[in-house]
Amino acid sequence: MMSKHLAWLLLFEVSAILPLVLVIYWVQTYLKGFKWEENNPSKFNYHPLFMIIGFVFVMGHSVITFRILPLSHRKKKYIHATLNLLALVCVIIGLTAVFQNHAENGYPPLYSLHSWIGICTFSVLLLQALAGLSVFQDLVDGARTEVRRTYKPYHIAAGTFIVTMATATMISGLQEKYGFVNPGRYGAHAMVILFLGVCIMVWAGTIIFILHSGLEKNSDEVNGNVYQPVSTSEQSMSVLVKTKDN
Fold first, then answer.
1. Is 184:190 a contact under the CB 8 Å cutoff?
2. pLDDT tens, 122-151?
3. 3-state secondary structure of 50
């Protein structure tokens, strides 16, 4: 089982790291690099960079945490939540870069299909993070096992939906930028953009397979149970009941 996990983890890591390497190479080679300066068009280049860091690398690792890592449920839960919050921060930085760039250069905001899909993706990611923290991270008193068990399938489905939306956002953004820079057919610049898009598609497919292939088969997941903190008094009562039964 571990060898199967390791194989899929290696495939995921390649599919998550390669888009990051490609976007840095693309910007540095063809788009004049990264410069966060007022009225500098290169500020925009932080937008694709942080979107790929946030969605592909950070959120991608968050999504597969429960299927790949050989850790306790509690540890995986905290890693999952931390990575999701970090992904949100990266996406916010990417959005800040593009909104500031448009404002400084007189471009209207949210005028394209790419931008609309992107805002929807960010909104769903934000709601998913808030709901997950509220239900699974013990922030809401009374979020017991029944609530968590009921919400869990929707949480997983929403995660898959976010991966799909993020893929559509990034692919449509690459196509939009392709039209702006007009790199020509079959040139090196065009191949970098096209290969970057294909790598993002492979990343999405790898995540969806890991999520829905049943790689993890621990007792909690198989029985549909969700971690719930147990108080000392509840533990004592359980011991008393078992003693009486014996």
1. yes
2. 999 999 998 888 887 665 555 567 778 888
3. helix
Q: Which amino acid is at 184?
A: G
CA distance 241 to 235: 10
CB 170 within 8 A of CB 202: no
221: left (phi over 0), alpha (psi -120 to 50) or beta: alpha
The residue to which tokens 């999701």 are assigned = 84
Burial of 189 (0-12, 13-18, 19+ CB in 10 A): middle
Instruction: Read off the pLDDT of residues 156-197 as tens digits, 9 standing for 90 and up.
Output: 899 999 999 999 999 999 999 999 998 888 899 999 999 999
CA distance 62 to 78: 10
Retrieve residue 35's tokens: 């410069």
CA–CA gap between residue 161 and residue 28 (Å, rounded): 32
